[in-house]
Amino acid sequence: MAVGKSIVLLCLAVALLAIGNGGVAARKLDKQSLGFYELRRGEFSMVVTNWGATILAVRIPDKNGHIDDVVLGYKDIGSYVNDTTYFGALVGRVANRIAGGRFTIKDHAYHTYRNDGNNTLHGGHRGFNQVFWTVRERVTGEFPHITFSYRSYDGEQGFPGNLDVLVTYKIDGDLSYSVTMYARPLDKPTPVNLAQHTYWNLRGHGSGHDVLGHAVQILASAVTPVAAGGGLIPTGAVAPVAGTPFDFRRPAAPGARIAEVEGGYDINYVLDGETDGQGVRKAAVVSEAASGRVLELWANQPGLQFYTGNFLKGDVGKGGAVYAKHAGLCLETQDFPDAVHEPGFPKEVYRPGQVYKHYMLYKFSIKK
Questions:
Q1: Does 198 appear as a known binding residue?
Q2: Which pathway does it take part in (predicted)?
Q3: Known binder of ligand: residue 112?
Q4: Which of 87, 147, 195, 339 would be a feasible disulfide site paired with 348, CB 3.0-4.6 Å?
Q5: Is 266 a known ligand-binding residue?
Q6: Are the beta carbons of 40 and 60 closer than 8 angstroms?
Q7: Which distant-in-sequence residues (6+ apart) come within 8 Å of 5 by Cβ?
């Protein structure tokens, strides 16, 4: 995707696209316009909104031709305001955790909003999932896509400098879509680590089945272990998965060994599959036998946070579905958590003139 043009910032979006019947309606939230946008190619479709650049639905047929929505989400947009589950959200300025809610760049200490105990999680209390994004471009046709833009201001949630951000959701084929994220610091060095926080249940979000029986493969031979005592802050080490419950190099059900993992799976994997010329590698494959659905994730980031919905506790979702613990799983490609404090981790600080790029490709297939 070309991004040579400068980002156009708009104060208000004036139209709301109502997906249900293709009509136009007006709905206001905090005096700005809220939009819902469907991208469709045949029977495959997805719905996104400019609130948090959030994915609200992904609909795909199963092996019997029945179409289901396979991502978790709330029944109304109001539930996304001040949401702490991050259903389908684009999270940042820094996804995952910053220990102590502080970091130093060029001997200058910055203090970010601590919203996860003593730590900053997913950009703070009002991260990128809690703001309106502007629709910069929308294209229909054979390969529909939509681009949202947001300018994060200097000092937002404690982060330094103004930052221009773009995300494009695009249907690339009959059963595939991509997410492309760009960020450009304008005037100060700043950490950047964006992530897409969709919860998947390939049986269907409202099926009533958890994801512990899904088959999961993660193409990584190591994880970044976390310190004891809670907080999920990496120790700075890189530990092999061989012989541990974290080994998903071959497809396995999370439920097989989840009892051996305190709290359930919520850890960063060090991806090490072979990359193409653009630095993109296969990161994970998830399949579900009853539906026949298979999800393959490709990305250009060094890490992947595998999370099994451990903190879900009866959240009421779309169509009245109730999301109990482990009702969905997340595959969040990312830089490593707390990289601002670990010089041995891949870099996370970008300077004016540098561009952050995060590319993800979701490829679905159906096993009959």
A1: yes
A2: Carbohydrate metabolism; hexose metabolism
A3: no
A4: 339
A5: yes
A6: no
A7: none
Cα gap 326→214, rounded to integer Å? 11
Fill in the amino acid letter for 279.
Answer: G
Q: List phi, psi (to 5°) of 101.
A: 60, 35
Q: For residues 245 and 264, what is the distance between their CA atoms, to the nearest angstrom?
A: 10
Catalytic residue among 332, 342, 348, 358: 332
Residues 6+ apart with CB under 8 A from 290: 203, 209
In 3D space, the residue among 67, 66, 68, 36 whose CA is nearest the CA of residue 50 turns out to be: 36
The 10s digit of each residue's pLDDT in 151-192 is: 999 999 999 999 999 999 999 999 999 999 999 999 999 999
CA gap 127, 158 in Å, rounded: 11
Catalytic position from the list 122, 145, 197, 214: 197
Q: List the structure tokens of 99.
A: 């220990």
- The answer to whether the beta carbons of residues 106 and 209 sit under 8 Å apart is no
Report pLDDT for 236. 98
Give residue 7's pLDDT band: very low, low, confident or very high (50, 70, 90).
very low
Per-residue pLDDT reduced to its tens digit, 320-332: 999 999 999 999 9
112 alpha carbon, distance to own chain's centre? 21
Q: Are 335 and 345 in contact (CB under 8 A)?
A: yes
Query: d(Cα 292, Cα 61) in Å, to the nearest integer?
Result: 9
> What is the phi/psi pair of residue 157, to 5°?
55, 20
> Is 190 assigned a ligand-binding role in the annotation?
no
pLDDT band with cut points at 50, 70 and 90 for residue 16: very low
If you average pLDDT over every residue of the chain, what do you get?
A: 92
pLDDT in tens, 332-356: 999 999 999 999 999 999 999 999 9
Query: Count of residues for the chain?
Result: 368
